[in-house]
Amino acid sequence: MKKLGIAFGIMLFVFGGFTTHAQTADEIINTYITNIGGADKFRSLTGTKMEMNVNYQGMEIPVELVQLKGGKMYLKINFQGQEITQMAFDGTTAWSTNFMTMKAEKMESEMVENIKQEAGDYPDPLIDYKSKGYTAEYLGKETKEGTECYKIKLTKKPQMVDGQKVDNIVFYYFDTENNVPILTEAEIKSGPMKGQMSTTTMSDYQEVEGMYFPFSMNQGGQPMKIKKVTLNPTVDPSAFTFKE
Amino acid sequence: MKNILKLFLTVGLISYLPSQAQEEIILKGKELFGDLSARQIGPAIMSGRISDIANHPTNNKIIYIGAAGGGVWKSSDGGASFSPIFDKHIQSIGCVTVDPNNPDNTIWVGTGEPWTRNSVSIGDGIYKSTDGGLNWNNMGLPKSDRITSIIVDPRNSDVVWAGVLGALWGDSEDRGIYKTTDGGKTWNKTFYVDQTTGCADLVIDPSNPDIMYASFWEFRRTAWSFNSGGNNSALYKTIDGGKTWNKIHNGFPKGQLGRIAIGVAPSNSQILYAVLETEQDKDKGLYRSDDSGATWKHLNSDFELVVRPFYFSRITIDPRNPDILYKGGLRGSISRDGGKTFKPLGNMHADIHDITVDLHDSNRIYVATDGGLYRSWDSGNTLDIVKNLPLSQYYHLSLDNEEPYNIYGGLQDNGSWYGPSKSDGGIEARDWHSVGYGDGFRVLKHPTKKIIYSEMQGAENIWRYNLETKELKTIQPLAVKGDPKLRFNWNTPIVTGIHNPDRIYAGSQFVHVSDDMGQTWRKISGDLTTNDPTKTNTEKSGGLSVDNSGAENHCTIFTIAESPLNKEIIWAGTDDGNVQITKDGGKTWSNVTANLKGLPKNTWCYHIEASVFNEGTAYAVFDGHSKNDYATYVYKTSDFGKTWTSIATADIDGFARNIQEDYKNPNLLFLGTEKGLYITVDGGKNWSKFENNMPAVAIHYLDLHSKTNDLVMATHGRGIIILDDVSPLRQITPEILKKDVHFFEMKPFAIEEQSSFGGTASELEFVGPNPNTAAQIVYYLKKRHTFGKMEMEIQDLNGHKIASLIPGKQKGINIVTWNFNTKNPKIATAKTLSYGGFTSPRVPEGTYKVVLTKGNDTYTQEFKVVNDPKSVISAAERKKQAETTKMLFDKNEELAYMVYELDEMIALNKKIMEKDAKSAKSNGKIDSEFNSLKNTMVVTTGDMYVGAAEPQLREKLSAIYATVASQFDAPSPSQIANIENIMDQFNTAKSGFSDLKSKYKNKLVGQATKLQIPFALKSFEEYLKE
């Protein structure tokens, strides 16, 4: 085990000498951003399109997620040749499709405000997090996914839930070896799971034009596989807009 | 980044090389257990003991409770439902305190229950959360054992006082009042009485934080006695923020005092109430002071006020009216006249430990009982239990061989129950059956008959209950001529025979045996205990209040184990530390206690596990906590007890009560401790704590189901917890842990034929999850996969893909489930969705393989899928079902392609008409012909609910497909007739389509070419692939 430890130490040394001094949140976050391609590349993105498969009990459901700088986004599912916008935001209005009528319905204003508030999160909440008014704190090491991780607490702006202002905190776990997040946790704020933690895992980081994205995610037990990432996509602006 | 990746590979290689030389790779829990996760099945129907309630001071939607053995739970909906927030830490809770200065975020928890009954657990310090309970830090006081109260200075959150009652079973200098001025980083003991007397309550004057009141209590428990009271019990007051404390006894009787409850009226802090335990019965009960404690007046000695002070000692005063007060007790009581008279609270579970009143509405109260949390909207007249608190405190459990198997067990003050390990829609309150009163302990199913044995405390009754005839008979061994008084433990051992199913053993100081299900008993041993007369006089137990409940019966047999290999070999362990063995069915016994090196004398033998591998092998677990010894004692013998080896290591934190041996791998052992589950895969050289969905809860008993390989745990505070199918753990060896990827061998996966019905619980009721019935692909990864592709497929043996799965990537054990489904059919596009399109055909039974690709490496493993063994459906029927499903699947796809072609031609025709105005008339006719055909093929209007259009061919075809694909047997004659009918429609549509196509396709293509409109149809194969 000792020798293994030494090898580990060498590896850590190569990647910035983590073992030599106490970590700070900024060091971890900056190393991460450097590892995935550097802040400049991400800042210059105008948008991303992710084509993915959501795997539901072995059934693969094609999903397309488009996010643009500034917060516009849509998530489309393809069922039986029909494209259904499960959720979209055009900068002012957020909406979804009612599955009974297959018609667009506006989302509740509280939710819309929360989405607006995080419109600047694209492409990554951690990039320039301070200028977004967020704070990050290093909480120490913790084992997640069987792996030693740095735990970072990212405090975003409080959100409104059921008429009350609530904290908006995401815990990031950065694998100490690769210094990329492999898991995040956030408290569920409403519904029957309220008060419990929602967990997302990230893996299969792959390069797209010099930037790294996790191509596999599991959100609260729902696995997703990204097939293709298109950077700066051309998108029909009407795809984001609510249609009466 | 590319370079970095290369470096990863290189360094990865370096790190691999030295590991070759390693003898063994030791992995501890979080790196090993991965996706293996416990299943908490409750029940919550009887819930369990709650020691403290804390309401948020400004938001009445937020409530915290601390359970006696089930941790801390938080409600964010005004007490409608609760979630656990303290699972990583010890589950015995003394108090929860919300910081009044920062009530949304800062919460303090003092561990160790203050209600000191015989079965009470221990605490390990004080905890703090600064994020509303998401994360907790232990802030010290590790030897406090039980913290009764925490006060945060309303002027400064960094200033906190903690009242430490301390050790129950021994002297302790860690008792008293502690203060921190740096938010808990450091603590000073600011007031101390002596090593026998601890702080039972600490309250603050709501109008002047420099004034506090503290009650101190002299108390002690042993395994055989309890004492409440002494000359050091007293009520103190400080007026200088805790610097000096003075007794305030003016009006109290002289002599010894016991436990004292104290309360300050929030609306008038001059008014105090205290409940005293005194030497004379006439002096006991409620005292009131109207001058901040300067003088006291005795008001009342009602039963509810004086009953069992060690167990009930909480006064709650209405926040608005100082004359309305509640007192915890057997039923709990309320006074509306300042304590002169009381009436009991309404119907709920007995034994009331705490009561709180809502912030805004005095009619709304919350009550903590031995059987859960109750809410009332009329100040306690009518009460409603919170139904999602599975805090049940099991003492023991046993399993049967039904499918699904049932779990039998008894609980603290909540009788005996059995319920299933699996139920339609989840395991709900309705699934649990009551089979005993009082405190329940061991409940056993007769190995072959529909008969259940259960018992209540001290074998006051052992019942034999016939589930079929409903015959209920009391069968405990009774004293016969010449017998001394039979001493039965509070938790009396009863065991059914392995070799003779009608046999039942029971232990007093003797081993009793019945071979006729309890009709006649004979003793097969002498007194196997130390029979120490100083430990067998329980009549005087209790101290100032006699408490002879039987809970302190001592010098009794506590565990009996029959060897599964030889019926003549029986082990018995006693609560006063003896281990005895007979090898001749009870004719002669050997006391092998002296051979247990390193075990302190008289340490309670909690469990003996007779090995399935070897007659001479057994495990014994000893629990010294009732002698104030919290060390772990686990021993193994291989020679009938002549020599013993300790297999407890420093990995284990706290005392243990039970051990379970695996049936296949002698090195795989499970240990139940006061702080959770530990597992060893190397015979006890290394132990790992198991924490996946497994709270750090006291485990009183463990059993391993021989068919399912499920480890079932009786926890004392979180109900029954199951670790489903532990068989992967059997296979772990150092060699496997060295491999990059290792698939575990799994037994064949059965495609279970199960109901999709069930589920009657509201969202506020606890429902225990069912085991996963899908195929579970279990593999070990040496390293977490983070960069690059890693994918998984199920294939048939010829390598044809059946399903894509998304694999887990964590280091350690990963489990990926597959529900035996193949690909779902491609369904014709229409106005609405067809549910049939979400139905996939199942694979037939047979051998399949899982293929995992990770970077350039491929790993495969074959596995078997079998039909449900309990199914009566024949192979021929299954074949017919599969063929029909396939036929209908194909027809759905064929129709989908026709509709695609038709849609493409309709679109093309539209473009032609748009570009060439002259074509409008003739092509308009084509359009209407196309559309009238399409209208028979799919719905083109309507919605997915009550606005749905009349179903057309697609809807009918997909509906019958979904029905047949979902069933297991052959299509019925009725279904076949329906299929024929739909096939007629299909053929009509097909020929209609074919006619139109031959009539118009070439024409349209010709027009399009002239107009330069591109047109290309995908082939059927291309269409299916897209």
From TrEMBL, chain A:
The protein depicted here goes by the name Outer membrane lipoprotein-sorting protein
Signal sequence region = 1-22
Please give the Gene3D superfamilies that the UniProt record associates with this protein.
Lipoprotein localisation LolA/LolB/LppX
Q: Which UniProt keywords apply?
A: Lipoprotein, Signal
Native source organism of the sequence: Flavobacterium piscinae
TrEMBL record, chain B:
Keyword Repeat carried by entry:
yes
Show the InterPro entries listed in the entry: Sortilin_N, WD40/YVTN_repeat-like_dom_sf, Xyloglucanase_GH74
The alphabetized list of GO BP terms reads: xyloglucan metabolic process
**Polar residues biased stretches:** 527-546
Domain Sortilin N-terminal, first and last residues per copy: 126-280
Superkingdom is Bacteria
Keyword terms, alphabetized = Repeat
Where is the segment annotated Disordered?
525-546
Q: What is this protein called?
A: Sortilin N-terminal domain-containing protein
Q: Which organism is it from?
A: Flavobacterium piscinae
